[in-house]
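User: For my dataset I need records formatted as: sequence, then structure tokens, nothing else. Please produce one.
Assistant:
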Amino acid sequence: MNAGEIFVAGTWRAPLSGETYQPINPANEEPLAPVGKGDERDVDLAVAAARKAFDEGPWPKMGAHERGRLVWRLGELIQQHLDEMAKLESLCTGKTMFDSGKVEIPFAAEVFRYFGGWASKIHGETLALRDNAFTFTLRQPVGVVGAIVPWNFPFLLSSWKIAPALAAGNTMVLKPASQTPLTALKFAELCQEVGLPEGVFNVVTGPGGKVGMALVRDPRVDKIAFTGSTEVGKQIMREAAGTLKRLSLELGGKSPNIVFADADMDAAVRGAMTGIFYNKGEVCAAGSRLFLEQSVHDEFMTKLTDRVKTLKVGDPLDKATRMGPVVSKAQMETVLSYIEAGKQEGARVAAGGGRAAGPGGKGYFIEPTIFDGVTNTMKIAREEIFGPVLSVIPFKSVEEGIAQGNQTPYGLAAAVWTRDVSKALKAAKAIRAGTVWINAYNLFDAALPFGGFKESGFGREMGSVGLDGYTEVKTVWVDLS
């Protein structure tokens, strides 16, 4: 990984601006390695390289088994470089080494292995419809893919896009978030090591308004795969209309976590903790609205607040830490403003409620915060906070709990907690969300699709359907008369 350079056409080069910037370590507010500050001109070169690699290069024409072997090999290299990539991820994001090293980077490696296996299984159908014709379909790669990823799971969410796109024979330009580019640049090194052909994978770092939107507007880019806020997703849709490029958008969420009175309380408390405090709440699928059936509200809140007190907030590189800082000063200020709004609207602070002290008095740390007595109309229950802030909302019946859970423009994820299988399945069917966990939260698998309903976006990542957005279906009719 060359300091201050971007990766285009298989080589490292300085951005045309000649400028660099330094991401900030959110745990100590110190600058990290210099990163190239790319702009529209660099995107132009990267897209040209990806276009040439797709139109003229060997990658789309390569045998599916060989292409799959290379994608699988990338997964193996990620696993081999696990410690380095996990540390880079934690330095940029503030996530704990446990989250990076034990969960997210290994999961990303598995995503590459999973889609490496799919490369040789992408096929069409033979349709014997007419005696005088041979008709069939082909599944072919879309072309050049622009991937734009956020700062909360920088490499994991990149893997959800890169692996299926490459397995299907596409070429790519990746735009990582400005705050968290280091694992993307390290991955480019691994692409060199594995021997990906020139131009198949490119990385341009820099501000989203320039680099990301240049990708969206470029007519040579056939598809944009975006994960981020709903507002930016809407902007991308408007900009992409000019070239009618394909889109997959995984956007915001305000997910309901619904606990019924017959649930295993201890398990549900653990699930509520995972749902909102994993990765400091910087999770699009975070269970940020906790619905408690009235009869168990007090018991549950006692158990939950007792458990929150044991959550160690601190240096993400310390193995004992379970919650690090939020990603940036701007994000910290945003989260604190929501906490203040909750207080002003009359919600009761049951835990936390302010900035936490970091090592040496530095860092963007926030106390794990729980608001009780929240209603669905409050700002903290309507808007995505993207931080460690939980809104607790009571309900009296199954129907009311589901109805309140659905009262949101979002529909990314949800969970229900109950020992009643019939109730669980009926609730899972009634909740309008792309993923519903039953007696669990925040569990993912490379074989299971993930994506949203409503303003949480469209398209699915992972699983066999995750390939759909990276392939075109072509019909072939051979006249035999």
